[in-house]
Design brief:
Largest sheet: 4 strands, antiparallel
Number of helices: 2
Radius of gyration: 19 Å
Amino acid sequence: MNHESLQEAIDCLSILDVRLDNSTIWVDEEFDPLFTDEETLTVQFKSGIKESVVRSTQTKEEEKKYLRSKYQCGYRVLISSNDDAEPPSGEDLKGWIQVAEVTADFIAYYGMNTDLDQSAIDEFSKHNVGFNVWPYWREYASSTAVRLRLPPVMPPLYVIPRDKK
């Protein structure tokens, strides 16, 4: 982690807004959540930054720059195809069948008071955007699960990414 670049970005940027950009919802047509034993289901989560770009807008008085960051989140619901199935890990779904998936892209907007180099934007995006988006994602994930009649879905608390040593 480049602490200097990250601090430079933190000093320059201020959150303006977070909004849902798009979402996809898929449920297997053969899956009937009302008649499924919840204990046979498991949920896997994914999330990460997709892009961060500096944009500008022109007012009568001045040009204003802002950072627009897209953050993607998702979860999938899996059902055990046999009683001996080990908990799934990553993409290895041996013994599991995917029955539902919800993904959402959120856009976070940040006002900029000075120009930033790309390394500062990258550090900020990696370490801060998810933190700002996460409460919106948690609400969306859980309320969507309720609407789909899935068992309760609550993404875990956000963990700030750590650089590998």
